[in-house]
Amino acid sequence: MTSFRLRNVPLLSRVGADRADTLRTDIDAAIAGWADAQLLRVDRRNQVLIADGRVVLHRATDLADTPPEDAVFLGRLDDGRHVWAVRSELQPPDDPDADTHVLDLRRTGDVFDDVSAQLVATATALLNWHDSARFSPVDGAPTTVVKAGWGRVNSVTGHEEFPRIDPAVICLVHDGHDRAVLARQTMWPPRLFSILAGFVEAGESFESCVVREIAEEIGLTVTDVEYLGSQPWPFPRSLMVGFHARADPEQPFAFNDGEIAEAEWFTRTEIREALDQGDWSSQSTSRLLLPGSISIAREIIESWAALD
Q: Rounded distance, CA 116 to CA 202, Å?
């Protein structure tokens, strides 16, 4: 069987800052750092500003003298300064000559450094959770923010809730040689293909989910499921867990759950040629357009395609 590893750390899995989790419970210390802290603004579309290859950070005290209730603590930079995030309209950097543009994280992530990747992924996931967790899922009581944005407490019962993560598997299916399956979801335009993914169900392991999802989506029975790596996907709060698995190309496709419009076995040469054309955002006329660099799907496909 073809066995391989990811060649690179997925872009949103990069680590560049100290999460400083002890400060989430040492609130006095976290607040004390606000005077010199940096602030990341994320707008309602989960976009941020990028300038000269880094996410734009502002002086926290320009927003308020102390952390607002809806601010979330992200960690510490190498120089010891704290970083917080808020949901806010974007503001230009202090340097008017900086090369600045708005970034939608779902489209690209290779334009900024490791620190920026970690800060943006964490901020987006936390802020998305807070947007949907203002009331208890148990009794509907209002909840309040605790632990510098890393928890919410039921105002009636005192029960504490923590940021929710929805695990999902994503898998490249291959024949053990030089062919792999790519599929197009029903909502995607023609020529846009990727590998297969689905959410993990209650009482299910990642590996079992791979087998079930592949069978449900395209009707193939897969074996030899192997883990590759993972990546946060904060839209709104997922964790993508990557695998590859083997299937027999003689099996017919069956689109059982209605999510997949078409699937096809592609050769390694065909996939390499498609990778050379760029990604979904390119103007290529290639018959096959593949995911962008921000997705772990791209890293999995590139790693498989690079095999001899």
A: 33
Q: Do both 62 and 124 map to the same domain?
A: yes
How far, in Å, CA of 3 to CA of 304, rounded? 9
Domain assignment present for residue 160? The answer is no
* Cα(174)–Cα(243) distance, integer angstroms: 11
170 & 275 share domain:
yes
Task: Please report how the helices 296-305 and 268-276 are oriented relative to each other, as an axis angle in degrees rounded to 10.
Answer: 130
Q: What is the pLDDT of residues 23-65, one digit of tens each?
A: 999 999 999 999 999 999 999 999 999 998 899 999 999 999 9
Look up the CATH number of the domain holding residue 256: 3.90.79.10
- Global pTM value: 0.93
What domain range includes position 188? 166-305
- Give dist(CA 171, CA 301) in Å, integer: 10
Looking up residue 24, the CATH number of its domain turns out to be: 3.90.79
Asked if residue 21 and residue 119 are part of one domain, the reply reads yes
